[in-house]
Amino acid sequence: MSTGRLEAFSDGVLAIIITIMVLALKVPDG
To answer: pLDDT tens digit string along 18-30?
Structure first.
């Protein structure tokens, strides 16, 4: 396994998690 691919995968996962968190915070209560 190359380190570059592992880093890119980790960055992608972090980006998805951050996006979900931001969307969850921006969702109105009603």
So the answer is: 999 999 998 777 6
User: How far apart, in whole angstroms, are the C-alpha atoms of residue 15 and residue 10?
Assistant: 9
Q: What percent of the chain is predicted at pLDDT more than 70?
A: 90
Tokens coding 5 = 């691919």
Nearest-angstrom CA–CA distance, 24 and 30: 13
Please give the full DSSP string across the chain, using - where no structure is assigned. Answer: --HHHHHHHHHHHHHHHHHHHHHHHHS---
